[in-house]
Write a structure and sequence with these properties.
heterotrimer, A mainly alpha (about 475), B mainly alpha (about 140), C mainly alpha (about 120), A: about 475 residues, mainly alpha, globular, C: about 120 residues, Helix Hairpins, 5 helices
Chain lengths: ~475, ~140, ~120
């Protein structure tokens, strides 16, 4: 029974996803509540799974009773259990805001939106648990389809345009990934990552073959994750989506692709041969470009949602940098940042959604004087922004500190420089907004509804992981050790 | 409005097309095809019906919300069948290993749960084709 | 070397079609053509996998109980491609629905014209 847990989490979310459109017409409120309860249950189950997996070692589960090289294998390692826990918790928190967000939506659209959110969560969980490359691809596509759907959920025309752009580039990315999976299958004869990796390690392959596989995977997954030269869809898509969707897309979805990359790369090739093939270096280079370019683009934005989206491009760079550095410290930093950035970016999007609602415009000028009207959301915005900048005692600082150390450990002395430079850039675009919020002269009028459900849990978690990072980091180092070995 | 010949021939052919679709769904565990291919044939037959007899006459027979509901039903059916293995003490989607009689290979009622699950897939695919067509054609 | 390439010509063609599809998506401004380009790319991958699963002179993999010792074509790639086709159909359907919406809202399906409309709006 316990071995079924990874599959059950996915199936539970899938079932509720398809139940939602059946009931939303009559019982909208109940559907929203049930969707929330299901997501919280999934979060609870994955947390329990994480606890068990850390104690008792990873779970390997053959779906339908067909053993590994033939059947689909699902594995719950500390890494995947952690990522699924983070994803479900953030989705569950963001979903608390659904009843308010969907107040004016027609029931048809509200229903499908809930379906897509649950489907997205299920697919992310499935993608993280999958140990079979083709299963990974299927969930990969379901994730992509549902994220295209939620981007298009708004009716204004920029949404359709942004979603289409996202879709085209995403489809190119999927084709690359499928090609890479195809080559892996043709070369090794296995789709199961453990078996394929054993084959690659034992067979004397021409060095170009693993390199081609890895490059195809890298291009495809970096396209989906919005790493720098392939980020062009991201600001449009993440800014055109409804607030909750932006929070999830920026906060969770792009990172799951990064985790998929880490799983595939370490699962198929292992850290040493990644370094030997130069793939790690490629990842690090793309990550650094992403960190710097994302922040530079964010500097010149006047639209808050676009600014936050560009900042996501920079922050996804941190995750890739951590994975690219390898070693337990680097990978642990990447995993920690997945949680920290998820919390930060979700709070930033939810809080600025409030300001956009208040001012009716996405321009950052709207933040002037917002602190007096919306004290609590703006306080949390400030907290998250300062954490982004990397103020000590906040979560963002811990990531930077660990990346700093991982860079020194790997004798890559430019890494600390990049980290510091990026902190300065982050400060350059976040601090003016924070200044505006509290000291700017803006309209102090406006009937503001101050409640933003979900913002307080996010802030509490953010402070908690920032103040007491050590238990979490110990766990993550264990997870990283599992990934690397 | 399409001409009389087209309508007559279509109304003659449709039952056979749909029969073939159902045949393919039911023989999924015995021959090439199965839920996806058969469901596709069924769905395309409905699209053909719309193209010849007009959107409204199909909407009267299968309203959009019904086809959406059938879509959900197909998926839920699949998941529900998956739980049979779990309920019998084996794991999710388990068939023979969960002690289900798989019958004699080659007969129509064999393959245990595969036969049952294929029906859900067929319903899902057929209704999805129809819903997709509705979504693309309808003015909302 | 050349002989090997000739022997494995399906792979070569698949790579070529893949590149062609990628070029179509990136170079055309008409949204419908972009969708076609994506489909071409996906078809290239399907060709690659089918070619990999093919056994020359192999029979379709349907078990014939009377005559079990026949060389079958590898069925796994075909099963994968069936799944791939389902995915590609859903992607195509979603993108077509989006094109319908874009056409309704912008009055054009040309990416350049849409970009022009959007930049005019921003000013």
């Amino acid at each position: 029974m316990f071995n079924n847990l990874p599959v059950l989490i996915v199936v539970m979310l899938l079932i509720s996803a398809f139940l939602a459109p059946l009931f939303v017409r009559r019982f909208r409120r109940a559907t929203q509540v049930v969707a929330g309860v299901v997501t919280w249950t999934a979060a609870g189950l994955s947390a329990w799974l994480l606890a068990r997996v850390v104690q008792a070692g990873p779970i390997r589960f053959a779906v339908g009773g067909w053993p590994a090289p033939w059947g689909i294998e699902v594995t719950a390692t500390p890494l995947s259990a952690f990522v699924v826990t983070v994803a479900t918790v953030i989705v569950a928190i963001v979903m608390l805001g659904l009843p308010r967000e969907q107040r004016d939506w027609p029931s048809n659209r509200a229903g499908w939106y809930i379906t897509l959110l649950l489907l997205l969560t299920a697919a992310m969980a499935g993608m993280t648990f999958a140990n079979d490359l083709f299963n990974l691809y299927v969930f990969f596509e379901v994730t992509a389809l549902s994220s295209w759907g939620i981007v298009a959920a708004k009716t204004d025309r920029s949404a359709a345009d942004a979603s289409f752009k996202y879709l085209m580039l995403g489809a190119i990315g999927s084709s690359f990934v499928l090609f890479a999976i195809g080559i892996t299958y043709v070369v090794t004869g296995y789709l199961n990552m453990s078996f394929a990796s054993a084959f690659i390690a034992a067979a004397q392959l021409h060095p170009i073959i693993p390199w081609v596989i890895a490059t195809f995977f890298l291009v495809g997954l970096a396209l989906k994750a919005g790493l720098f030269p392939m980020h062009i869809w991201l600001p449009d898509a993440h800014s055109a989506a409804p607030t909750s969707a932006s929070a999830l897309l920026s906060g969770v979805v792009v990172k799951v692709y990064a985790v998929a990359m880490a799983k595939v790369f370490y699962g198929l090739f292992g850290g040493a041969s990644l370094e030997a093939m130069g793939i790690s270096e490629m990842v690090r280079l793309a990550a650094v470009l992403s960190i710097l370019a994302g922040s530079l683009f964010a500097l010149v934005q006047t639209d808050i949602k676009r600014l936050l989206a560009y900042s996501t491009v920079a922050q996804i760079g941190y995750v890739f940098l951590g994975f690219g550095l390898g070693g337990t410290v680097g990978v642990a930093a990447a995993l920690y940042h997945i949680l920290a950035h998820g919390l930060m970016k979700a709070s930033l999007f939810l809080a600025s959604g409030k300001v956009i609602e208040l001012r009716g415009s996405r321009n950052i000028k709207g933040f002037a004087g917002a602190g007096r009207l919306l004290p609590l959301p703006m306080a949390i915005f400030t907290l998250a922004a300062l954490s982004m900048v990397g103020l000590p005692l906040l979560a963002g600082f811990t990531t930077k500190w660990y990346l700093f150390n991982a860079g020194l450990e790997a004798r890559l002395y430019w890494v600390p420089v990049v980290v510091i430079l990026s902190s300065l850039l982050n400060a350059a675009y976040f601090l003016p907004i924070v200044w505006r919020i509290w000291f700017g002269q803006g309209e102090a009028e406006g009937a503001a509804d101050r409640r933003v459900p979900g913002l307080i849990p996010l802030a509490v978690l953010l402070v908690a992981v920032g103040l007491v990072p050590n238990p979490l980091l110990n766990l993550l180092q264990q997870a990283a050790a599992w990934l690397i070995s | 409005m399409p001409d009389k010949i087209l309508r007559e021939i279509t109304s003659l052919l449709l039952p056979f097309i749909q029969m073939y679709g159902i045949y393919v769904v039911f023989h999924g565990h015995l021959s090439p095809g199965g839920g996806f291919a058969g469901g596709m044939v069924l769905g395309v037959s409905l699209v053909l019906y719309i193209l010849v007899f007009g959107l409204d006459s199909c909407l009267r027979k299968i309203p959009h919300h019904l086809s959406s509901a059938l879509e959900s039903f197909g998926t839920l059916w699949y998941a529900a069948v998956g739980f049979v293995g779990l309920l019998r003490g084996a794991s999710f989607l388990m068939n023979k290993g969960a002690g289900i009689d798989v019958g004699t290979p080659g007969e129509l009622f064999s393959g245990g749960l595969i036969f049952i699950i294929t029906i859900g897939v067929g319903v899902k695919v057929a209704s999805t084709m129809l819903s997709l067509f509705y979504t693309l054609v309808e003015e909302d | 070397m050349a002989e090997k390439l000739l022997h494995n010509y399906p792979y070569l063609i698949a790579a070529l079609i893949f590149a062609v599809g990628c070029y179509i998506v990136l170079s055309h401004t008409n949204l419908m053509r972009k969708i076609i380009g994506v489909n071409v790319m996906e078809t290239a991958v399907f060709l690659f996998l089918v070619a990999a699963g093919n056994v020359r002179g192999g029979k379709p993999p349907i078990i014939d109980l009377a005559n079990p010792d026949v060389a079958y074509v590898n069925p796994l790639p075909s099963a994968l491609i069936l799944t791939g086709i389902v995915v590609s159909v859903s992607v195509t359907a979603l993108s077509l629905a989006l094109v319908v919406r874009i056409h309704r809202q912008y009055g054009t399906i040309d990416a350049d014209e849409i970009a022009a409309i959007r930049s005019a709006e921003d000013v």
